[in-house]
């Protein structure tokens, strides 16, 4: 798991590394420059004309160091320098080291067309030290960089983008952001995608001991972390070891949702599965999920009654359920009677939004899996992505449950205030039914005895990984929800290897 640190914590990490490695600040900067250049030279050849736009802080210092190294590699490089603010010591040293090697053009206005003769523009105006919105000359130059027909690359973080709070003013729109060692919270928020582009981390050897000790409430999931959670099977295990899940899903016209969730649940390793479905779904489910048992509702078309709940380890409820008045009543009774953690999705969430008194009865430790629209119905409109994140944390705390907000970087908020951002998944999964698949996986993991947070984190990761493996074979456009299930076994194998 990778910790996501605040701008202030990153500054402390830099300072700690300098003091305790020990390494001089300028040598650490040189390491950062080399790491950036390592990434750059693997992708672009020496025919590319490069402009590096530098401020006068340490991000600008990085830019100057990068210019010197790229020149040594044989790239045609110019530095465009924007004065203003106090020059940092390392900036001054790197400017001195550049003398006679690379052309440095000081820019004080944007009257002329600055970038048309370049192929690539590297942004080193502001890094994590941005203290206020970019304005004046910096803002005008960022705007010109954004309009130029070039490949845009940001050093550490796009200029104008705040590391851990709401950004305003002009922001560099990177195609690539090469970030030092740790990702920034801003990278995971939908509104920043146009600024951050594709991001990657380069290791600059910041203190691992410090990172280990420092507390953070935001994390980025890694395969290593998931590997540690997943439990291998043991010789004398039997189906009773892996729980009996009850899946309550489907209504007339939406029995497919129950089948998708049920199939995913089985492949997620549950011991036994019973589906509770309306009568119209009986033959469909019995034929398509021969490993599952079926319990049939009193109603032909939707949920109105509940089976006896005693024998079930956990319940997954919501996909394709509909919101008939009788369904709402049965759902309310389910929440009242089943007091163990369960997974609530789709119409289960919509019923909660429309019948808010039911929120009080959500069993602690449950997992709620809204997509953004369902989340808005639950918590109301948010002013920006940071507000959305706060609302997600607040709901998790209020319900003492895990709130999984689905999207490109699905975020998983635990009741104790932690947020985990998923690292797997792709836009090929933006297709009907993939959410139902996730519900099945999460219910399957809960049934097997994983804690709610472990089940949520692992399930979301595996769901995205299965989607990635499926996309590799099928392509993103043709990918459908069933493909995600088909690749779930491969995802488990890969995650446990
Ligand atoms: N050893 C290390 O620490 C390492 C650091 N590294 C690199 O350092 C970067 C952080 O550097 P940094 O802290 O110097 O801040 P940086 O982002 O360059 O900007 C600060 C300057 O900009 C100014 N300023 C801010 N906002 C402004 C605005 N809107 N408009 C105008 N001015 C504004 C601000 O002025 P002030 O707020 O003080 O008035 C100050 O002068 C980090 O992202 C990474 O690239 C790596 O080399 C690894 C080793
Ligand atoms: N661009 C994307 N990148 C990664 N994952 C995505 C993307 N778009 C959708 N997904 C994933 O696909 C699933 C969609 O769920 P949902 O919207 O509930 O679909 P449905 O209701 O049709 O089943 C979520 O797990 C989400 O994270
Ligand atoms: K930058």
TrEMBL record:
Taxonomy, superkingdom: Bacteria
Domain YjeF C-terminal, first and last residues per copy: 222-495
UniProt KW Kinase keyword: no
Catalytic function, reaction form = (6S)-NADHX + ADP = AMP + phosphate + NADH + H(+); (6R)-NADHX = (6S)-NADHX; (6R)-NADPHX = (6S)-NADPHX; (6S)-NADPHX + ADP = AMP + phosphate + NADPH + H(+)
User: Which Pfam families does this one have?
Assistant: Carb_kinase, YjeF_N
Please list the residues that bind K(+). 59, 123, 159
UniProt-listed PROSITE patterns: YJEF_C_2 (PS01050), YJEF_C_3 (PS51383), YJEF_N (PS51385)
- Alphabetical GO biological process terms: metabolite repair; nicotinamide nucleotide metabolic process
- UniProt cofactor(s): Mg(2+); K(+)
- InterPro entries in UniProt: Carbohydrate_kinase_pred_CS (IPR017953), CARKD (IPR000631), Nnr (IPR030677), Ribokinase-like (IPR029056), YjeF_N_dom (IPR004443), YjeF_N_dom_sf (IPR036652)
Query: What SUPFAM superfamilies does the database record attribute to this sequence?
Result: Ribokinase-like, YjeF N-terminal domain-like
Q: Which GO terms describe its molecular function?
A: ADP-dependent NAD(P)H-hydrate dehydratase activity; ATP binding; metal ion binding; NAD(P)HX epimerase activity
Give start and end of each YjeF N-terminal domain. 10-212
Q: How does it assemble?
A: Homotetramer.
The family this protein is said to belong to: In the N-terminal section; belongs to the NnrE/AIBP family.
Q: Which PANTHER family match?
A: ATP-DEPENDENT (S)-NAD(P)H-HYDRATE DEHYDRATASE (PTHR12592:SF0), ATP-DEPENDENT (S)-NAD(P)H-HYDRATE DEHYDRATASE FAMILY MEMBER (PTHR12592)
Q: What is this protein called?
A: Bifunctional NAD(P)H-hydrate repair enzyme
What species was this sequence derived from? Ohtaekwangia koreensis
